């Protein structure tokens, strides 16, 4: 079996952008996986060109690939998936990927197969350069903190909805939402007040604590369910201080109401579920 070289000398690493928002997936985390998949595909293509195989000679192509080729191809795909997700594990997979590429190209250089020493060295450097954008401060911050990967959260809609929160340990908090999704909501604290008859404090709403929630979506729809506190945030710019909750045990009808509300155009009027019956009368 032959060993195929990873020749990526012509690939330049995508430059990191100065974006500070992660509401959308950073361009680096989109471009790098595409290049990595291209690297994996390049191995069988190099075999085809070196041995004059046609694309239909699949068995011959696959058996010609050396074990290290398969390892590099596999790591390219795994690393691509982790980078696309912005996973912390991408730092480890990137290290393994680079080691596999370097060792593969070393074997090629020693054996003198398919590529000169210069090409193998440049290929290894190209793979190294491909990882540099992941170490940029704004990208590394996202990789190390899963709470900053906002593109993975469901569609959110700015929503000012009266909300009643009852922590399991007692107390009753009345506030309003800042935004809402089909999975949860952000509750603002600048408009919050504890029921004086129900003693309570923000200590009852620590991350991981449970509570019951009542959301007055519109005059015709109220959602009541359990929820978990998943995040606390200080006020920043137009975003108020408060805490995020994730809904628990929603029934199908409640999910339907939330989806309809989140996807409804701004300013859309609430739909009366009994309108048809009233007209028939």
Account of the 3D structure:
The protein has helices spanning 28-51, 58-64, 67-85, 90-111, 117-131, 137-144, 252-263, 275-280, and strands at residues 157-158, 162-167, 173-180, 184-194, 210-218, 221-233, 242-248. The chain starts with 27 loop residues before the first helix and ends with a helix. The protein is built from eight helices and seven strands. Strand 5 and strand 6 form a beta hairpin. It is of the alpha+beta class and 281 residues long. The chain has a six-stranded antiparallel barrel. The longest helix is centred in the first third of the chain and has 24 residues, at 28-51. It folds into two domains: 28-145, no CATH class; 153-269, Thrombin, subunit H. The radius of gyration is 27 Å and the shape is elongated.
Label this structure with key terms.
single chain; 281 residues; alpha+beta; Thrombin, subunit H; 2 domains; six-stranded antiparallel β-barrel; 8 helices; 20% strand; elongated
């Amino acid at each position: 079996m032959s060993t195929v070289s990873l020749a990526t000398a012509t690939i330049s690493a995508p430059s990191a952008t100065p974006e500070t928002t992660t509401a959308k997936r950073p361009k680096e985390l989109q471009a790098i996986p595409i290049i990595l998949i291209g690297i994996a595909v390049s191995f069988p293509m190099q075999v085809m060109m070196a041995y004059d195989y046609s694309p239909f000679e699949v068995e011959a192509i696959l058996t010609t690939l050396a074990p290290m080729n398969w390892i590099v191809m596999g790591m390219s795909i795994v690393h691509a998936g982790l980078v696309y997700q912005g996973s912390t594990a991408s730092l480890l997979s990137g290290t393994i990927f680079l080691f596999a590429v370097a060792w593969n190209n070393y074997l090629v250089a020693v054996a003198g197969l398919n590529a000169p020493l210069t090409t193998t060295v440049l290929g290894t450097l190209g793979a190294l350069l491909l990882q540099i954008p992941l170490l940029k401060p704004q990208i590394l911050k996202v990789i190390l903190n899963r709470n900053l990967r906002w593109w993975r959260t469901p569609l959110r809609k700015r929503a000012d909805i009266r909300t009643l929160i009852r922590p399991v340990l007692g107390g009753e908090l009345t506030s309003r939402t800042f935004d809402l999704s089909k999975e949860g909501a952000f509750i603002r604290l600048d408009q919050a007040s504890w029921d004086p008859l129900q003693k309570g404090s923000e200590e009852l709403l620590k991350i991981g604590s449970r509570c019951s929630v009542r959301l007055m979506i519109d005059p015709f729809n109220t959602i009541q369910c359990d929820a978990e506190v998943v995040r606390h945030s200080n006020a920043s710019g137009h975003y108020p201080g408060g805490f995020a909750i994730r809904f628990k045990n929603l029934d199908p009808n409640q999910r339907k109401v939330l989806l309809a509300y989140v996807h409804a155009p701004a300013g859309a009027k609430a739909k009366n579920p009994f309108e048809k019956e009233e007209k028939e009368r």
